[in-house]
Structures are given as C-alpha cells and as structure tokens.
Amino acid sequence: MVLEYYRANPQAYADVFKWEITGPQPTTYSEPSVAGGGQGHLQVTHSAALLLWLTNPKPRDMTAFLANFELKVDLCDAISVRYEGGAIGTLATTGGIPAAQIGHQQHELRVYRA
Q1: Domain count, the chain
Q2: pTM of this prediction exceeds 0.90
Q3: Confidence of residue 9 (pLDDT cuts 50, 70, 90)
C-alpha cells in the first residue's frame, strides 16, 4: 500500500492508519531525486533479497520491465531470472493498490526447478 506515497499524498492514509500523518514528506517516495526510484527501488529489493535467501541460487541472466503510469517513479515491475544450474524465477510487484483496498495486497514468489 504505497500508491499515495508515490503520488506525493501521504495524508491519504490518515483514515487507513487511524492516526495523524506526520511523515514522510510528500516528496520522500514520489521524487526520483529523493527516493532514488519507486516500487522497484523501494519495495522489490526486499522481495528479491527474500527470493535469493530462500533459494540460494546465483542469478545468471535477468530481464526486467517497469511502468510508471504517469507517476515520476515506477509503479509496477516485472522481473524474470535464469539462475546458474537452469532454474528460472519470476518476481512481479505493484504499488498500485488503493488505500481503500488494504486487505487485497498480495505477495507471491515463484521458482521453478527441474
């Protein structure tokens, strides 16, 4: 649930969190010069680290795509990986789940081995 952060609108979460929002600043996650990137930089790094920790193979080849949907930072990312030894894996993520749908978040990692 980060869409409104990427839109520079952290106040949108006040009703969801049930407390006054005092941070982050509107530019913290919405400006590439401050955040360094969007979903890929801020969220995918955690999932990718978990994927590598769980499976332990070394990535050999990787292809990635992203879409920003008119934001300054990426909102959706898809990554395909081929590991040493021939296993393949995918990782896809979006920060586009609206605050009103907090219960609909998903996190899924898949690795296929022979």
Answers
A1: 1
A2: no
A3: very high
